[in-house]
Amino acid sequence: MYAVAGALATTTERGTWVAPAHRVTWTPPGFEHAHRFHGTTDARLVTVPVDLCGELVAHPSVFAVGPLLREALLALTDRAEPRPGAARRLLAVVIDELAETPEQSLHLPEPHDDGPRAVTDLLHADPGRSATLADLGRAAGASERTVSRLFHTELGMSFHRWRTTLRIHHALARLSEGRSVTDTAMECGWSNPSSFIDAFTEVVGQTPGRYQSDLRNRRR
Fold it and tell me: CA-to-CA distance for 217 and 167, rounded, in angstroms?
């Protein structure tokens, strides 16, 4: 699924992957999944035949879209291809590009253990919540140390990293819907726009202002 404009989220039993504009999500066979779209979205769906799926990673992921991959995806989805075999050749280009492109995984894993799941439920309900892990642990009936350990062992990341990724997911949705950078920063839990810009740039690879500018340009 290619997000030409807007942002899309793909959710499986392993968590949620977010693709901002100019990213593509890959969902391998065997994963039940759902998509959610944010803002004015132009999303293109390409189905990969099962016999070719082994050339790509075996887990859901997000990839950046370079010029060649972009043109191949648009050619596959803009119109029916009348030339015999052309669609298969274009698909081969897509697969070659994805196989060589580093993952840019905006992945938010979801816990199964009751302790961290109670904490993540609280933050899903209010991503901007400023409570510490100790506060959230008490609200969920677990100690800070226990919850912190479970985040590392079950999710493979710290609580701080998980909450930052959650907030970036929500920030992408708000920016795609036209909210200002300052309002988005405040709503998603940052104390000031500068710290939000730094975190967003680290995760997404561009500033929120540049991201919104690119969205406007693509819509035009």
Answer: 25
Q: For 38-58, how does the pLDDT look when each residue is reduced to its tens digit (9 = 90+)? A: 777 788 899 999 999 999 999
Task: Kindly report the pTM of this predicted structure.
Answer: 0.74
What structural domains and CATH numbers belong to the chain? 2-107 (no CATH), 110-219 (1.10.10.60)
Cα–Cα distance for residue pair 119/142, rounded to 1 Å: 9
Q: Quick: pLDDT tens for 130-177.
A: 888 899 888 888 888 888 988 899 888 899 999 999 999 899 888 888
Measure the CA–CA gap between 26 and 172, rounded to whole angstroms: 19
SS (H, E, C) 150-217: HHHHHHCCCHHHHHHHHHHHHHHHHHHCCCCHHHHHHHCCCCCHHHHHHHHHHHHCCCHHHHHHHHHH
From its phi and psi, is residue 36 left (phi > 0), alpha (psi between -120 and 50) or beta?
Answer: beta
Tokens at 45, concatenated: 């769906």
The encoded tokens of residue 165 equal: 């990724």
Per-residue b or e along 198-210, where b marks 16 or more CB atoms closer than 10 Å to that residue's CB: ebbeebbeeebee
